[in-house]
Amino acid sequence: MAEPAPRAAGDELATNGHNLAAVLARLRAQHAGAFGRLEAEFCRILPEFRAVTTEPAGAEAVQLGLRLADGGDVVSGENLAQGALYLLAYLTLAFLPSPPPVICLEEADRGVHPRMLREVRDALYRLSHPESFGETRAAVQIVATTHSPFLLDLFRDHPEEIVIAQKRGTSATFERLGDRPDVKEILAEGSLGDIWFSGVLGGVPEE
Predict the structure, then answer these.
(1) What does the alpha-carbon distance between residue 145 and residue 104 come to, in Å, rounded to a whole number?
(2) Which of 22, 19, 13, 27 has its CA nearest to residue 1?
(3) How far apart (Å, rounded) are the C-alpha atoms in residues 187 and 170?
(4) Strands (E), the chain
(5) 31-56 mean pLDDT
(6) Domains in the chain, please, with CATH?
(7) What distance in Å separates the CA atoms of residue 86 and residue 103, rounded to the nearest whole number?
């Protein structure tokens, strides 16, 4: 995600995000309003920055950068923290006029401070519940994995969206939390993340 990308590769964000700079450059050129909202949201979450930049990197490529709020210097992509890059990628998907119909994310909390996980959740909700954010496009189905009790706890009000994966040897079973007959009693016990971590819900390594 941090590397320069060919301008021609800006149609759709690649599975490994390597063309993030090109997607952002095209969004800025073709949908300036959406880019502006993305930029404002990113800088609200990380106020040490005041702008997202996409500068030429040779004749046919573009380089991602973030302009610092204090002094105005640009931090190039290769010098950005992993969490900042992942957050920028999530927001890019969330503000695309036509995002993919299905998005799968492995370890959606990767590189993100636990205090900022609510922002990740909200970016995913912007994709899956566009009407709640004033968007008129079709909803996106999100499949995201996590081992973070902090991220899990942010979904305690929506147990129907949580699926616990239980691995036994080389096989796995899946159970929707909302289908458990004791789900109300479980949620009344306190932090959902702590309850999952304790092993009550399953989905923990075999001992």
Answers:
(1) 8
(2) 19
(3) 30
(4) 5-6, 49-56, 61-68, 74-76, 102-105, 141-144, 163-168, 171-176
(5) 96
(6) 5-146 (3.40.50)
(7) 14
Q: Are 28 and 22 in contact (CB under 8 A)?
A: no
75: nearest Cα among 65, 85, 83: 65
137 DSSP assignment = S
Bridge-based pairing of strands 61-68 and 49-56 is antiparallel
CA distance 159 to 176: 8
How is residue 101 written in tokens?
A: 């119909």
Asked if 140 contacts 124 with a C-beta cutoff of 8 angstroms, the reply is: no
Residue carrying the six token digits 């942010």: 154
pTM over 0.85: yes
Which pair of tokens denotes residue 9?
A: 């590769």
206 has pLDDT over 80 = no
Q: Which one, of 38, 6, 35, 31, lies nearest residue 19 by Cα? A: 6
Indicate the Cα dihedral angle 151, 157, 160, 163, nearest 10°.
20
Yes or no: say if 203 and 147 are a contact pair by the CB < 8 Å rule.
no
Nearest CA to 88 out of 61, 49, 55 is that of: 49
Note the pLDDT tens digit of each residue in 126-146: 999 999 999 999 999 999 999
